[in-house]
Amino acid sequence: MSTSLVRATIKAVSKRKLQATRAALTLTPSAVNKVKTLLQEKPDHIGLKVGVRTRGCNGLSYYLEYVKSKGLSDEEVIQDGVRVFIEKKAQLTLLGTEMDYVEDKLSSEFVFNNPNIKGTCGCGESFNI
């Protein structure tokens, strides 16, 4: 009876360093307050969904809609009790973006401060990455 010997080599592997990941989307206190106010008026909805659509001079524009449930491929951001969902198509586009709510004498709107944007159109409605 012969026995075969199996040889194994073990190599040391350096430990992987954990790095902080960038938040998919952060909301300013002003945006949190506005989303809370909007959702109080729609008690059957659980949050807002942020997405991008092909539109405008530069290619993409943001859209917001109320949602009653989380989509299968949506990423969920919970901040200060507010739930915002990011559609799959917009997840890489919005990475590291800050969502703000701005009011002045003539208008009020959500503003996205996106570090990934390479260019915008003159009217500010669309962007490209």
Automatic annotation (TrEMBL):
> Which residues does the UniProt record annotate as the domain Core?
25-125
Recorded GO cellular component terms are: mitochondrion
The GO molecular function terms of this record are: 2 iron, 2 sulfur cluster binding
What Pfam families does the record tag this protein with? Fe-S_biosyn (PF01521)
In which domain of life is the source organism classified? Eukaryota
One of its GO biological process terms is: iron-sulfur cluster assembly
Coiled-coil region(s): none
Say which family it is in: Belongs to the HesB/IscA family.
Name it: Iron-sulfur cluster assembly 1 homolog, mitochondrial
